[in-house]
Every structure is written in structure tokens, then in C-alpha cells.
Amino acid sequence: MDFNNLKSWESELNICIRCGYCYENCHIFKVTNWESDSPRGKLILIYGLLTGAIEPTEEVALKIFECFYCRQCEDSCSANVSVTEILTDAREALIDAGFDVEGTTALVDEDVCSGCGVCVAVCKTEATTLKEEEDGKKKSHIDKAKCEGCGVCIVACPSGAIKLKEGYKVSQEELLSEIRNLLGVING
Ligand code: SF4
Ligand code: SF4
Ligand code: SF4
Hints:
The protein is mostly helical. The chain is 40% helix and 7% strand.
């Protein structure tokens, strides 16, 4: 197992001075408070995968697949490190290596998907395609390397076939719960 497709990022990964400006506005870091979930932490993990200092595991893969591509880390990076492009290439390498984790990518329930193609039309990253199954029916398939977890397909799907894993404080239920908690604090 190698991560040679990350070789072209080696010098850029070395430019990162680990200052930590990148994680101040990172939603994932705010949810977990783990350094390894911050943009800086992800870059260190990817550097470790590239050099072989870190073994790829499900846990490491999950960190790489947790990102909403808001690009706030890149906006605040004093060294202009291309965090999200590096993440996408790392995702491709991990998928090739057999790591099929969910993270913050959209998930299709094939039993519910009608194959209408609405998600394909709305996805700006071209992560979604329709694939023909053995029974001839078409089902939506999401490329986890390309999916940025924007949620547009989730809202657009007329069948309600797409969702995002709970735990990132972005689902309708989680947001409602946050609002209720906030109102509870305000109202005493
Ligand atoms: S692009 Fe990803 S890593 Fe960067 S701040 Fe946003 S969620 Fe965090
Ligand atoms: S929009 Fe929903 S029902 Fe239509 S193809 Fe996509 S996932 Fe399937
Ligand atoms: S969550 Fe956004 S990027 Fe991912 S498949 Fe849906 S529309 Fe595309």
C-alpha cells in the first residue's frame, strides 16, 4: 500500500508551520475538540501516510473523510496551504487502499432511491452519478472523494433517499436540538 499520489504535495505539506490559525473556525474541530480532527492535524496525518510513519487505519481514514470543505482553514492559513485539495487526494488514495468510511460524505439509501437523477443535476462537484444495477434499475452513487458534504442533494432529493451521518451537528434534528438548548439558556 503506498500513497505516491500524495508525493506532489510533499513540499507544500512541509510549508505548513503548524501555527494553528487554520483550526480556529473549523466546524469539525469545534465539534470534537480533537487536534487530529483539525485541519493541521489532518495535514500531519497525511504527511505521516506519505512518509510511512503512520499506518492507514479506519480511524485515520475517518479523520480524512470528515470535512465540510468550507475552506475557512485555507482562508486563514498564513502559508497558503491547499488543505482541501490535499484532503481530496488523500481520500482518493485511501479509497484505492480499500478504506470505505462515511465521515461527512452524503449517503444514499438505495432501497429508497428512485433513480430520478435530481441529485446528479444539483451536485456542483460532480460527485453523484446514476449507475445501473443488475436488475436494470438506476441508483444514485456518490464518489466519496469528490463529495464535499454540502448537503444540497439531501435537500433536493424528492424521495428523501440521501442523508449525512449524525454527530456533526448539521442534521435537522441536531440543529433543532441546538436551537432548543440555546433558547433554554436565553429563557433561563
Ligand atoms: S475546509 Fe474542512 S478542515 Fe478546513 S476549516 Fe472547513 S471543515 Fe475544517
Ligand atoms: S435525487 Fe434521490 S431519488 Fe433521485 S437519484 Fe438522487 S438519491 Fe435517487
Ligand atoms: S453533499 Fe453536496 S457535494 Fe456531496 S454529493 Fe451531495 S450535492 Fe454533491
